[in-house]
Amino acid sequence: MAVISYTTEGCDSPVLAPGLGDGGGAAERLLRESERRREIHALRIGTGLGRRLRRRAFLAVRSLPVLPGRSVLEIGAGSGLWTEHLAAVLDNQNSITAAVFDEELARECSAKNLPNTRCIHVTDFANQFPAGGFDYILGTDILTEDLCPRILAAAYRWLKPGGQIVFFAPNASNPLFALRRRLGPGNRGVQSPLSRKQWTDVASQRGFVNIEVIPCEVIRPAESAAGQAIGLILEQAPVTREFSKTVAFMAAKPGALPEVSCQMNLATHPVLLGAVSVVVPCHNEDANIGRLVRTLLGMYGDYIQEIVIVDDNSTDRTAEVTAAIAAWDPRVRLVKRKPPSGVGRALRDGYAAARGRYILSIDCDFIDIVAEFRGLFDAVAAGHDGAIGSRFSSESVLIRYPFAKIVSNRCFHWILNLLLGKSVRDLSNNLKLYRAEILKTLDIEENHFAANAETGLKPLLMGYDIREVPASWINRTSEMGKSSFDLLRVGPDYFRALLRITWRAWRGRYHALQA
After folding, report:
1. Is position 363 within any domain?
2. Stated pTM of the model
3. CATH code at 334?
């Protein structure tokens, strides 16, 4: 990976971003200084730096989400400390452009020879890249108060319509951060803090939409499962999240990225080719079915034998949309249910209708995490009977996850592990890939959402080799419609199902089934 220094010759009508081209390289000088300070500070952090940067890479890639095939620009890559983790998390599915402002650091970044990555020594920040050249723009510890307007002006121009940005920076709202900065020069950190209001104001002035500030790193990223779960909980808790060490500043350029350009074939295991039935229970999901089907077929089309859309008594156009899609791709099948409704009932009907050797069970609002399904396919192709997407692992990201649901989920699994002597993290969601006979013969007794707990726990107790793999959770946007999940209404069902399953397990019922 050679260091590249190029200008805008040949670019489409370069326009100076406000405040970037003036001052005889003032922007480049400020960026070089910020980049160097960050590198010096990183050397003082020591052994915890790698875990922190890897966690940020997962948070950026999963939360945007960065879909395979799309382009990524990292601003202020320096010696490539974070670029290395980004490349590993993206797993060669995206081209990375590492923009470095210091020439010596650019040479260090280039020497890493990271896959699918080019290192560019930036000499003209205002006009370095063509307009609309990138799908995502990222950065860590480079966004200072002084540089924020300059960087966002450039990022807006370089992004395609619908492109997104995320920058990690110290949390200026953390009272402990402000106190440490006052204790002396040795504790000032690497940059002037940028407040949430400043970010929101500057981003909106530059034309960005969907502006968010997400607290992260309340505690140092942990290696143990318990430590990871605690960290995720603290990041979502109303009070403790204000003490996060870092925040992720996120925003998007108005518009929509084209879907087709991001599709990449992730179906690489011969044993799964043409063997997977995807079962999707749907209630009023007409806004999501089309994009979900296109994304599934674009990434895993060679695996998919059929996509079974189970219309659970929808009152919108779910059935009509599904029928229209099935008209141009016969792999899409509609199972239309009659009352009464219920997720458990829809799963039973969907599993019964499935014809593939494997069944992938998902919800319709999993669109943004489709690329992460690859972990499920990898596990089953390796010989496991099934795989479950776990939202509580070191590689998981929770975006706008309601705190009450996190507490309930953690209590449920703590009780489960205590009563049954297990060590599982997250069995109660509907992201599962199993050999078909497991789900077809499983006795699903719950009629509503608690059926997801049965499909996770019962096969494990019956002796099947089930593996948990990392998965993220991203809450629905308003365009995706409202979820029918109501914690107060369905929460007790989960605990009732757990107690019933535990009692039967103590009596040896599931051991007998295995035999």
Report:
1. yes
2. 0.85
3. 3.90.550.10
377 neighbors 452 (Cβ within 8 angstroms): no
Residues 9 and 133 grouped into a single domain: yes
- Report the pLDDT averaged over residues 69-83: 95
Beta strands in 268-351 (DSSP E): 276-282, 304-311, 332-336
Range of the domain at 233: 3-252
Total tally of structural domains belonging to the chain: 2
| 347-380: pLDDT as tens digits | 999 999 999 999 999 999 999 999 999 999 999 9
Structure tokens that stand for 285 in this block: 């999901």
- pLDDT value, residue 241: 79
> Which of 46 and 505 is assigned the larger pLDDT?
505
Q: Which two tokens stand for residue 145?
A: 């108060």
**H/E run at residue 232:** helix 225-236
Distance of CA 246 to the CA centre of its chain: 18
Separation between Cα atoms, residue 405 and residue 327, nearest integer Å? 39
- Quote the CA–CA distance of 309 and 283 in Å, as a whole number: 10
CATH code for position 175? 3.40.50.150
Same domain membership, residue 314 and residue 200: no
